[in-house]
Amino acid sequence: MLTFLSNRFMLLAAQFFQPNDVIFVPLCLLFLFIIFRSRANAVRDNSVRRIYYAAFIYKTLFVFLFTFITEYYFGGGDTGLYYQGIKDLRAALSDDANYGMLILRSSTLTGENPMAPYFYFDNYTGDFTFNYMRSTSNFFMPRLGLIPSLLFSNSYLCICFCFSFFALGGCLRLFKTFYYYYPALKKEIAIATLFLPSVTFWSSGLMKDTICLGCVGFIVYASKQILINKTKIPASLFWLISCSYLLYTIKAYIFLVLILAISIWFFAETNKLIEDKTLRQLFGLMTFVIGSGIGYLLVNYFTSQEAMQQYQLDNIVSSVEYQRKNFELIDQSSAQKTSYYAINTSNPVLLVVNSVVATFYRPFPWEIGSSAAALSAIEAMAFLLLTLHLFFSKNAGKRFRLIFKDPRILMCFVFAIVFAIGVGASTANFGALSRYKIPCMPFYMIMILVLYRNTGLPYPGWFKWIIGRTKEKPVYNVRNSRVN
What we know:
Elements: H1 2-16, H2 21-40, H3 46-72, H4 77-95, H5 99-105, H6 116-120, H7 129-132, H8 136-151, H9 156-181, H10 186-194, H11 197-202, H12 208-229, H13 233-250, H14 252-272, H15 277-302, H16 313-333, H17 348-361, H18 371-391, H19 396-402, H20 407-426, H21 430-436, H22 441-454, H23 461-467
Helix pairs in contact: 2-3, 2-9, 3-9, 4-8, 9-10, 9-12, 10-22, 12-13, 12-14, 13-14, 14-15, 14-20, 17-20, 18-22, 20-22
């Protein structure tokens, strides 16, 4: 047994790590740190600057943790296939530099593509790479990873660092967005956007989730700069367009939910500018109707392509039911049933409730089947306790109504809940769900923590200990911050 594990360890080490990592990993970290330091030093608030550097160190540690756990515990998985795809692209380029333009033009990998043989005969486990790259979103990942691969001599760790620090850049922009509105909640917002363990872990490697999380942060911040602050518009437009394209290509459903949430945020911000209560209510009704119509048209427009028709509104329910049944069949034939869960309802209301519960509050302690699930369960329990303490104490109705009075919290509510329903209903594996749900986790936690503070409800003692706060003061007004 020990010989088998030792051989497996050496095989994976040879596949994903190489001697020149000793040179290129420090160079990559130095390169990223120089870029990061230039941005962090532009922040005038010393306490915020310290949060930035702490986030950098925290992210760096999680990249090492992610690379070793995914390769030696999970045996590669999706990230291994993406890395193999990068090596196949490099092999094609080394044979013919003209493949560079083909890589840029190819949105997917077909049998007619001249690069197909490099993927089909790469001797990866089961020769599975070619079929895996036939998906547009899957093939997009090695194309993205090719850039850091060429810069850092195909170092797997360096590629993971580059991807993960893009995610960190997006998370820092989420922090800046909400800290701008809630400067008194600096520590809480930092925890929600930068230091949630599962979010940090699953956005620390060569994965779709890493890029998607970064894109969400960049899009939200760019939208604030363009629509609300009306500053740095050229740079914000660049990030908005670039990240929208990335998100739409890799995981379109995240892009669609984000469009809905940001549209509601903008309409709600506009509605707040009307002083007359009657006009404000009338405008609110009009903007809700118009916004819903625009959102419906946008969703149907963006899903009009054949590859995107699975996300059309009339296909979502049947698609979710189909996937749920497939997962139940997998669970029945799986030897590791503890990693799967079931919604067990076709009732639309119960489906919504159970999906939200699965996303934010499960696995429960009795559903833990592995050490990875134990970490997810601890985080889920923290979310559950915070939520129960907030909505099952006095004036719970008032707290829920406050969601609709604050445009930023309304955006968090819409994005978190709609996203949770989507991934919770269509996924039945806790491992996959822990990855899929990371974009909505910061939004949900920010919503909960702002509601605590804006209603004067003290945090539970255990959470006070986490943030190191000894005195709580309600924050009813928001002001602008120097971090914008």
